[in-house]
Amino acid sequence: MSRGLIELLGINVLEVDDGTCSIDMEITSDALQPFGFVHGGINAVLAETAASIGASHQIEDNQIAFGMELNINHLKAKRQGTLIAKAVLRHAGKSSQVWEIDITDDADDLVAVSRCTMAVRQK
After folding, report:
1. Could you tell me the CATH superfamily of domain 4-122?
2. Does the pLDDT value for residue 1 go beyond 60?
3. Confidence (pTM)
4. pLDDT range class, residue 2, cuts 50, 70, 90
5. Domain ranges in the chain?
6. Catalytic residue annotation
7. Residue 50, Ramachandran bin (φ over 0: left; ψ between -120 and 50: alpha; else beta)
């Protein structure tokens, strides 16, 4: 399976456990908006990626999970360093999952909070 955007942005999977997933990404110049801060879309990519990877580990081999809804609040602007996204499963139903994601920096300061609803479908 192609890793596409994950590979392009240098996102690393740190841990996938039962109901959690942690990933990180080094901030590069490609991730910045014109004023030199991390583009809000990067936080969204991290949130949905962490939820997607976590969801994929919660489902059967004949199922797929994909983002259905994403809400994100950007709390702190960053220019450099590492962003860490930790997703925690809050609901696992037959056709959907709800994940809460905290995005922190390398000083463990909260950068963004998110909730992602994942659809679960047959392949």
Report:
1. Hotdog Thioesterase (3.10.129.10)
2. no
3. 0.95
4. low
5. 4-122
6. 48
7. alpha
